[in-house]
Amino acid sequence: MKVKVLFVCLGNICRSPTAEGVFTHLVKQKGHEDLLEIDSAGTHAYHIGVSPDQRSQEAAKRRGVELGHLRGRKANSEDLDYYDYVIAMDHENYDNLQEISTESNRHKIKMFMSFATNADHDEVPDPYYGGEKGFERVLDLVENASKGLLERILDSQLKNSI
Ligand code: 4NP
User: For residue 23, which of 43, 42, 37 has the smallest C-alpha distance?
Assistant: First the structure.
């Protein structure tokens, strides 16, 4: 059975599609695409059906990651049942996810930066109203946390198979 991962931010046009694209890219690079199912969603309905923000697409493309095929959608309570890891970009996303979770699936909600190795951030900051630097920082943080998340998933798969 696949391990299912959902990345969640506010609008699903900047941080979580970036995380989906970067994490998918890393998983393919490492040859684990058969192990994982990956998606992203937003806690708000502002940008349903919309492509990722151009600034996110350009920042990702500079690192070899394409986001143009992704489309925004809103996270819902069924996602908490379906996915194994529901990964929040910031504390507000985390709190919003807690509100739509139940006692039995709440443990799946994690802060993305808790998987980062050298981060001095505990959140991926919202870049939407800022300049290009903010989008580059999102890529830096997302690349770092993606490596940690994949290692954690592979470790837990290994433990489960012993
Ligand atoms: P995201 O960024 O949560 O990283 O996708 C945002 C996108 C849109 C808005 C806020 C944040 N907005 O207010 O429309």
Answer: 37
Nearest ligand 1 atom, CA 10 = 3
Neighbours of 100 (CB within 10 A): 17
Kindly state if the Cβ of 52 falls inside 6 Å of ligand 1: no
The model carries a pTM of: 0.98
Q: What is the DSSP string of 27-82?
A: HHHTT-TTTEEEEEEESS-TTTTPPPPHHHHHHHHTTT---TT----B--HHHHHH
> In this structure, what token pair is assigned to residue 4?
């299912």
Checking if the pLDDT of 60 tops 90, the result is yes
Ranges of each domain in the chain = 3-161
Taking a C-beta distance cutoff of 8 angstroms, is the pair 15, 126 a contact?
A: yes
Quick check: is 15 catalytic?
Answer: yes
Average pLDDT over residues 27-44: 98
User: How far apart, in whole angstroms, are the C-alpha atoms of residue 45 and residue 32?
Assistant: 32
Q: Structurally, what CATH architecture does the domain formed by 3-161 represent?
A: 3-Layer(aba) Sandwich (3.40)
CA of 154 to the centre of ligand 1 (A): 31
Which residues on neighbouring strands pair with residue 5, listed in sequence order?
A: 38, 85
DSSP state of 161: H
Q: What percent of the chain has pLDDT over 90?
A: 93
